[in-house]
Amino acid sequence: MEIIHISAECYPAAKVGGLADVVGALPKYQNKVGHIGKVVIPAYDTKFIRESEFEVVYDAWSNYGNHHFPYRILREKTNKLGFDLFLVHIQGLTDRPSVYGYGDDTERFVAFQIAALDWIVQWEHRPDVIHCHDHHTGLIPFMVSNCLKYAPISKVPTVLTIHNAQYQGQFGWEKLYYIPAFDLWKGGLLGWDDAINPLASAIKCAWRVTTVSPSYLEEMMSNARGLESLLRQERWKSAGILNGIDNEVWDPATDQMLNKNYNLKTVEKGKEANKRALCDVFQLDSSKPLFTFIGRLVDEKGADLLPDIFYSALQQHGDRINVLVLGSGENWVEGRLNQLKDVFGGKYNAYIGYNEQVSHEMYAGADFLLMPSRVEPCGLNQLYALRYGTVPIVRRVGGLRDTVVDIGDGGFGLCHDQASVWDVTHAINRAVDLYNDKKAFKAVRKTMMKIDHSWDRAATNYIELYQILK
Ligand code: ADP
Ligand code: GLC
Predict the structure, then answer these.
(1) Kind and range of the H or E run holding 161
(2) Which residue's C-alpha comes closest to atom 5 of ligand 2?
(3) Which of 100, 232, 293, 374 has the most crowded Cβ, counting Cβ within 10 A?
(4) Whole-angstrom Cα distance, residue 423 to residue 411?
């Protein structure tokens, strides 16, 4: 089967979070089992894109409403990602350094989706599936089925994967004219709650809907930023497929970003060396347990709780623990996390910003990784932590619930029920006890590293789902 993934992110070309990791890995694994996975993203001005070689495969004009624009489709020449990566280059709209966060994001992603479909519709053959990811590509299922100019591909099945229903991409009906011509009576398929809602539209129009963990699918029925009733209505065509991880990128035995590589046999020494290097850089004490957080500093990740959690844990444990944070997001959280450096120098540090290398060093050098998420559709950090022998401390929610089993239940992680300072500090206390029980701690590390979360399983789950649609 030929599967076209259309997305806003794809690692390593453009990454903000886990969406990039998924779209950068799933097609590679689909190719490994004999299918053809391809990826289409906007041509941003990122380092990877600037430094890679592309060839122009298509060159044309398109429009959203009366806004006409020239665009080019570029193909990465060397297949270095293990799949064909195509970029949609629209001068002035896509060619910017960031993926999101501009006042005209609606126009950028509408133009991207239209250009991508204009290109696909004139291919000599039809792909077997168009697989859309999140709201940035959420207008595609509607447009494929209903826009007159896409009639030749109207029978190509579309699949939507919801990575995060918190973001829906709503815009006003006054922009309806952006959408290429369709029978106006079908316009209701675009809307939800008095606005055009790309995520809602995709849920209505895609042939199948998936979410990135089974628990998140269930949770969305009662907690999905206003889309609950729609999701309940479309439950029949929905499935929860747990994400995998790219075992080639995330392997402590070969990871080029680490200070020292290690495997199941050498984990103790390997982690120690990585921890020492990390602690040297961040002025921490490698003889004490190292607690970390990596991620977007936003409410859904429970990031607003972090300053109080660290304050209370560091007060309580005095000189017996270290904390290191890597993340960026809400200004006030960044500010408070920075302030803590003055209070707890030598046992606390924070890197405010995005740094792929430091994240790998942290998964390898840390003892514990905190994820006190309020919402976590899947979560990849805990899966990377497991593979690197770092014990996850997670709230029982979404994909965290599906992937982390508490040591009290015979598992390998530390789980808590509430996103609250009390629950997390209690879990940190349990973690300190575990750390001090050297034998148990070593055993937990080995158990975690043996767990296989590679994409092999999930890639097959997706293929089975597409096959139903043939
Ligand atoms: P989400 O996509 O909701 O942000 P995930 O757990 O699915 O959460 O994926 C987050 C991804 O982004 C992981 O690969 C994680 O290592 C990475 N990441 C998040 N914040 C940072 C950061 N500040 N620096 C480097 N990598 C980060
Ligand atoms: C989203 C979710 C995260 C998930 C990722 C990849 O960003 O917030 O939980 O792991 O997508 O599917």
Answers:
(1) strand 158-162
(2) 18
(3) 293
(4) 19
Distance of CA 296 from the midpoint of ligand 1 (Å)? 7
Q: Contact at 8 Å (CB) between 430 and 423? A: no
- Listed by start position, the domains of the chain span 2-246+456-469, 267-452
Name the helix (H) or strand (E) containing 60.
strand 54-64
pLDDT digits (tens, 9 = 90+) for 441-458: 999 999 999 999 999 999
Instruction: Measure 21 CA to ligand 2 centroid, in angstroms.
Output: 9
pTM over 0.85, yes/no: yes
Residue 131, SS3?
Answer: strand
Chain segment 97-149, per-residue pLDDT in tens? 999 999 999 999 999 999 999 999 999 999 999 999 999 999 999 999 999 99
Per the annotation, binding residues for ADP-alpha-D-glucose are: 15
- Please check whether the two domains, 2-246+456-469 and 267-452, share a CATH topology: yes
- Is 461 exposed, middle or buried (CB count within 10 Å of its CB: 0-12, 13-18, 19+)? middle
Q: At the fourth CATH level, which superfamily is domain 2-246+456-469?
A: Glycogen Phosphorylase B; (3.40.50.2000)
Q: N- to C-terminal Cα distance for the chain? A: 10
Using the mean position of ligand 2's atoms as its centre, give its distance from the Cα of residue 164 in Å: 6
| pLDDT tens digits along 28-73 | 999 999 999 999 999 999 999 999 999 999 999 999 999 999 999 9
44 close to 74: Cβ distance less than 8 angstroms = no
